[in-house]
Amino acid sequence: MDVSVLETEFPKLSAIVACHKVLRLYVGSSGQAKLVVLRRSVPITADGLQRLREELVKLKERRREAAELIQQSREDSPGARDEGEGGETKNEQAFIEGRILEIEAVISSAEIIDEQEIQGSDIVRLGSTVTVRPMPKRTDVNYRIVGPAEVDPKNGFLSDESPVGKALLGAKVGDTVEVATPTGVRKFKVKAIS
After folding, report:
1. Residue 109 contacts by C-beta under 8 Å, 6 or more apart in sequence?
2. Which residues span the domain enclosing 28?
3. What is the CATH number of the domain that holds 63?
4. Per-residue pLDDT tens for 33-80?
5. pTM of the prediction?
6. I want to staple 82 with a disulfide (CB 3.0 to 4.6 A). Which of 7, 23, 31, 87 is the partner?
7. What are the φ and ψ backbone dihedral angles of 125, each rounded to 5 degrees?
8. Are 176 and 190 in contact (CB under 8 A)?
9. 73 and 62 belong to one structural domain
10. 27, exposed or middle or buried, with CB in 10 Å at 0-12, 13-18, 19+?
11. If residue 171 lies in a helix (H) or strand (E), which one and from where to where?
């Protein structure tokens, strides 16, 4: 069975699959199918975990506000169905619910990256901040290599599962790594690791 079909049939499943990326369909001896999510730990920095917890609190407040707006809309227009602001609020509420499920799944599987272990390391590891120079440019860029739950490329947080993140893992100062991108191979020279 295709995962997209399963996600359609089981709406809460998509947040779990997005977080854990591992799903198995087992058929028991009775012929009954069972979905089993094989959980994996989610590497995350202590700061990243705190940011997720704060986002969760805000989302739960927004969920309450959205429910109140939907209830008010129903009271104001008992005959109207999913139109105007009520429909938009329901869409927002669905987004909020999905994000809450996703964050709760990450928090329940969080494995804090030991930042003490990273300090002083001479190789790029998960949790490292690395200064690189994209070649042939002359300006340095700082990236923090994080787990998928903390990705924020605009602020320099790259996933260890991204092409650049994968290429940088294990690199040392002075190394040049190559990354295959849709626009061609890019080179990055490692300038510093902290």
Report:
1. 19, 20, 39, 40, 41, 42
2. 3-37
3. 1.10.287.180
4. 554 444 578 889 999 999 999 999 999 999 999 888 888 877 777 665
5. 0.67
6. 87
7. -130, 170
8. yes
9. yes
10. exposed
11. none
